Each structure stands twice: as C-alpha cells, then as structure tokens.
Amino acid sequence: MYYPPVGVRVVVSLGNKELVGIVRGKHIGALREGVVLKNIISQLDETPVVTERQLQLWQWIADYYMCPIGDTMAAALPKKIGDKGYSFSPVKKRRVSLPNYTGEIEPIHTLDTQQERAFEHIHSCWHKNDVVLLHGVTSSGKTEVYMHLIEEQLAAGKQVLYLVPEIALTTQLTDRLQHVFGDKVIVYHSRVSDALRAEIYRQQLQPQPRLIVGARSAVFLPFENLGLVIVDEEHEPSYKQQEPAPRYHARSVAIMLAHNSGSKVLLGTATPSVESYYNAQNGKYGLVTMTERFAGLELPKITLIDLRQQYHRKEMCGHFSDSLIQRIREELARKKQIILFQNRRGYAPMMTCTDCGTSPRCTNCDVPMTLHMHNHRLVCHYCGYSIPMPTQCPSCGGSMTINGFGTERLEEEVSELFPEARVLRMDLDTTSEKSAHQKIINAFAQHEVDILIGTQMVSKGLHFDDVSLVAILNADNHFNQPDFRCYERAFQLLEQVSGRAGRKGEQGEVIIQTYDTTNHIFEDLNNHDYLSFYNSQIAERQAFNYSPFSRMITLVLRHRNEQRVIAAANMLQNLLNKVFGSRCSVVIEPSIARLQNWFIRTIQLRIETTSNYARAKQMLQEQIDFVLTLPDCKNVQIIPNVDPL
Q1: Is residue 90 pLDDT above 60, yes or no?
Q2: Pick from 206, 313, 320, 533: CA 20 to 30 A from residue 376's CA?
Q3: CB 155 within 8 A of CB 132
Q4: CA 28, 32, 36: angle at the middle one, nearest 5?
C-alpha cells in the first residue's frame, strides 16, 4: 500500500466538504473508539511542503500554549499554500519572483573596541549557553555586532532569522542590511502579499544561505540550514500573539526553533525583559553588556517638568509647559529635529457631560469612545464602532467637554504654537495604508520634517541623526495600570523613546512632563540605570510570586450572555481551587469586561517553577473539558493564555 510522505498536502473528505490537510505520519495500532479512517482523495505535492522539524515545532507550540495543532498549522502556513491551485500544486506553475536588490554593495563596517569586545564575548558565551542576552544601551551599535555575526553565518552557508517586533522597524533596518548583504536579505511579515509570502516559504524549503528579516510570524518558516536566530528588542510585548490562537511568544518559539536546529540565539535590547535578565543572571543565558554609546556619545540628559507646578503658576499653553515650548523653539532655530511622544492616538480619549458626567460608551464594548476630530466622530478602538461627535449630552442634553489628549490633538496644538515647523504624525491612523510607515520614516530621516509626533511606534529602534530633543508629554499614563508589569513596560518605553535623542554628534535631551516627579522610576531613567530598576522589580516579583518565580496561565472565559459566563467561571474556579489550591485566583472581572459583545471573566493560575508544568496543564485541561460538558456552560469559550503579557 502506498503512503504519502510526511509533509505533503492531501485532500480528504470530511462531511460534505473536501479539505486540504498535511500528512503528519503513519498511524500504527488500533484506532480509538469512534475514530473513522478517511480515504485520501488526492495528493497535491510530489515533495513535502512542511518539514518534519516544522511539525515537531508546531506540536511543541500546540502543547505548550494549550491550543489545537490545527490552529498552529493555520497560523504557520501562508494562505496561498493552502489553496489547491497555487505554487506547490502540479496544476498551476505560477511563480512570484522575489525582489532583487539592485543597489550598491558596501563593505561591512569595522567594529569599534566595545563592539569587537562584545562580538568576542558572545562567541565565548555560546560555548556554554545556546542563548545569549546582549544588553547594550541605546545607540551602542548592537546592529553592527549583529551584522558581523550574520556575515559569519552566511559565509558558512548558513541561514539566519532576524526577528523585529514591529513592521515599522523593517524599513530602516532592511535598507541597512541590503547595502551589505544584497539580495540575500528577504523580508517576511503580514504586509507582504500572500503570493510573495508563499514564494518566500517555497524558497525556504531549500538550504541556500539567506537572511530572513521578519516579524513574529517568520518563526514558522521552514529553515533547512539555520545557523543563528537574532531577536532584536527582545523585551517587546509585540512578540506575543494575542488573537487568535496560538497565543505564542515569538521569543520562546525562536529559542525552541534554534534548539531543534542546533543553532544559536542572540537576544538584543537596551531594556531587557525582567524574565530574560533573570535567566542571564542565573546562568541559563549568557550575558554580554555594552555600556557606552557608539563613538563616545553621551546618553541623553533627562529633564523633569512638574505639571502640578506648571498649571498652578499658569505656565502652560495647551498641553505644553512654557519651558518645553522654549526648548522646542531653541532646537528649531538650530535646525534640529524633535520627537513628541504621546502613547494615545486620536484627538482625545473621551468626551464628558459637564452636567451629569456621562461619557458616550461603545454599544459593543465596555469602554469610552475616543474622539477623532479629523472626521468629527467618536470611535471605539476595540471594535471600530463609531458615531458622530455629539453636540450635547445624549443622556441629559447638557454640554460636552473634551477630556485628555492624543496624538491628533498634539498635532493641532503644535501647528498653532510653531506655525513655521513642518509636522508629521505617526500612529495607527496615519500608517494604515501600505508603505505609510516607510514614507513617514523616510521624510523624517531626510529632514523634510521638523517635528515628529507619535505613539510607541517612534520608540522602537529607529535611528535619526539630527534628533536633539525628545519630549514625553504625559509620563503618568504608563504607571496607572492594574498590571504587575506596568512599571517594567513604563521604564522600557520611556528609556527606548529617550534613546532616539542625541544619536550623532552631541548629547540629546529628554524632557518628561509628569505630575509626580518623586516617582522612583525617574531616578533610574535619569541615570539610565537598568540594573537598579531590575533589582527593585525582581524583589517585588519574588515577594508576590509573579513571573519569573512562577509560571502563569490566564484563563479567559467569554460568552454573549453575562450570567452564563459568570456561572461557568464560578464553576471552573471551584474545580480548579480543589486541584490547585492557592495557586488559583478568584474569578476576576477585568477592567474591560465586555468586548465586541462578549462578556469576559478571567482566572489566573501561578504554578511553581519546580512543579511538573506539563502535568499541571494536563490537569487544567481536564477541568476545562469537564466544565464544557455541563449544560449551564454550553457554548462558553474557555481560552488558556500561557505566559500572558
């Protein structure tokens, strides 16, 4: 009897449909009760389109993140590969050519003393640890170190995976890499067309030396000759997939991918995640540090502005203190560039009635609606529902006032305060169209723009020579979150955005407007002292048994009926409490308890790192499966989120 090889696509009949599946192996032994074998209608590929190493990784993802293997496969394979007629099928032979680099190839830069020392230290650490954390301050030249490591691997005929957290980062980075490595550089992320993604996937089935630069989904590509995985800005939450399943963390998957391939991993950042730094401190990872900026540049000076005093003295114009306005004018006069950071898009986060205090809320989600002035509408940033901007309170007819500010409002104020300045805004609203990121970044890099206003997009790894001043308009937004990670995220974000200042020629300045200048995090930021920050955070994590001292799983329960989701959550919590005891939390009503008309409750588990984690997840799944059989819990969704962020 003929058996198709592992990794080819086949067509089988399920119910009234013909579906494409992947051959994972040959079944041996008796079938489970109720399992019926289906005949293969046709085989679509002569040779495998999925490698056994990929199947091994996908199974690990499914097991570790508690999701069906089918969800993992759906996330891993480009859509065009699932189509019967596309490039892997014998029916059609259509091909999409990869873009060829036609620019000049430049010799790779020579490393300076600090970079050379880091390069050698990384190799030394790899003799003991397969994973090394490169902790280098902003603008220390980590990318140059990466490039020399990449050059080694390509020269040895190996493949390299270079992960970045945001598509926006690929613009400057790809240009830089292509000038050295030419058409060996391949870009892979969600904004690449389906046809091109499929062609990249097909070519990756061959062992030729290539450098894949991509966002988190690039970990699913086939790698036949992988030598190195670089995870740049390893601390970034963007590496964690939230919806849909599998809810994987690309850093963890990348480490497992490298382990399965026998290759090395380099995690790079100026602000390591607490978990990664803990692993480095305890010898699980190697640790290499770069404490100085390239070419002896000083780290930016931090200046705090007390908003309480500024408002009390009436030294504010809109959301700008008088001293910040003066500094912006001075830098504009010197023909320097400025970045203004506010991590909220839109004009204002809400409108409120001055009489009854009502704020218009989304009909589908339990959140206030954000004002977008360019089209005079209130918009829900979770589901997209929108209504015209109200002229009076929908509840009592009173007058409405605008509360808070976002990037759109800042753009308006900047244009009024500095009419001579050329201003651009970079946020989700201005970068939704294809290539919009690249156009904005290029315009700013070419000095066609004086002031760039942006959300966290402007904080991540971008390099601009003439930015002398960065201003953080309201730092306090980042500290008032009901999350044990909020101070970690705040420090990382503020340090990263600060790092955009003074990257060439002279020391930059970062002005932080805050209502609480006594917050201890500002002292660590002022000294650019990550270790002090880490020590305070790790002590707190240990005291309350948070990660990395426990492994965390959040169970998200969803249903259209609030009473049903509450009943299911209470039932599940009671069962889990009997199994896990104090490791299980009470039922939690999240701060946003309804999204897109799904009512939500959560339960958190914290499992000791010394426990059998696989067994704990098996016990958890047994309780979930039992609850889903109960009539009162019918159609309730119970979603495990392993290692939540």
Answers
A1: no
A2: 320
A3: no
A4: 90
623-633 exposure pattern, b = at least 16 Cβ within 10 A, e = fewer: bbeebeeeeeb
Eight-class DSSP state of 298: P
CA–CA distance from 284 to each of 68, 232, 372, 406 (Å)? 30, 19, 48, 42
By CB atoms closer than 10 A (0-12, 13-18, 19+), residue 316 is middle
CB 515, CB 507: distance < 8 Å: no
Q: What 3-state class would DSSP assign to 146?
A: helix
Determine the distance from the C-alpha atom of residue 21 to the mean position of all C-alpha atoms in its chain, rounded to a whole number: 30
Verdict on whether the full-model pTM lies above 0.85? yes
Q: What is the DSSP string of 45-84?
A: -SS-SS-HHHHHHHHHHHHHTT--HHHHHHHHS-HHHHST
User: Which residues, 6 or more positions from 560, have their beta carbon under 8 angstroms from its beta carbon?
Assistant: 597, 598, 599
| Radius of gyration in angstroms for the set of CA atoms belonging to the chain, rounded to a whole number | 26
**For the segment 445-497, what is each residue's pLDDT rounded down to a tens digit?**
999 999 999 998 887 767 888 999 999 999 998 888 889 999 999 999 999 99
Angle between helix axes 562-580 and 613-627 (nearest 10 degrees) is 140
Closest of 220, 230, 157, 236 to residue 188, by C-alpha:
220
8 A C-beta contact, residue 403 and residue 350: yes
The two counts, helices (H) then strands (E), for the chain are: 18, 27
- What pLDDT, on a 0 to 100 scale, did the predictor assign at position 85? 40
Sign of the CA dihedral 357, 363, 365, 368? negative
pLDDT tens-digit map of 295-340: 888 899 999 999 999 999 999 999 999 999 999 999 999 999 999 9
Q: What are phi and psi of 15, to 5 degrees?
A: 65, -130
Polymer length in residues for the chain: 645
What's phi and psi for 285, nearest 5 deg?
-110, 155
Is the previous residue joined to 207 through a cis bond, with omega within 30 degrees of 0?
Answer: no
Cα(639)–Cα(429) distance, integer angstroms = 30
- Distance (Å, whole) CA 270 – CA 235: 9
594-595 vs 598-608, strand pairing mode: antiparallel
d(CA 356, CA 116): 64
For 626, the enclosing helix (H) or strand (E) is helix 613-627
Write out the two tokens for 276.
């990664």
Nearest alpha-carbon partner for 356 in 387, 330, 332, 390: 390
Name the strand (E) or helix (H) holding 443. helix 436-445
d(CA 566, CA 300): 50
- Nearest Cα to Cα of residue 140 among 174, 117, 108: 117
Beta-bridge partners for 424 = 452
Element (H, E) at 211: strand 211-214
In contact, 177 and 211? CB cutoff 8 Å: yes
Is residue 205 within 8 Å of 51, Cβ to Cβ? yes
The rounded distance, in Å, linking the Cα atoms of 26 and 21 is 14
Q: Does the pLDDT value for residue 100 go beyond 90?
A: no
